[in-house]
Amino acid sequence: MQCSFDERGNSVPTVLLMMQKRLYLEGGLQEEGIFRINAENSQEEYVRNQLNKGVLPRGIDIHCLGGLIKAYLCKSSLLPGRKALLEFWSSLASSSKDVPSPRNYGS
Can you give the pTM of this predicted structure? Predict the structure, then answer.
């Protein structure tokens, strides 16, 4: 898994930073239900396959992007870099009132 450093100096998976940047650019944090409303399964599967190739496609549903970020963080909660991922989630939470507490994931 390729990692990059976020603005706080944490080593975070590059794919996660790509998704965060796109979410911010497309105004996803102002979208109601961004981390609660699910996208179509077919689109999510397509985007996952593209992400596995290192590509984040354009024109995807913003809820699909939010769902993939949430899923990635939930599944990664047992990795050694958990603290950095929780800080990453907290940075999203500070920008959106729609983000649940990170302690609800992977406990």
Answer: 0.70
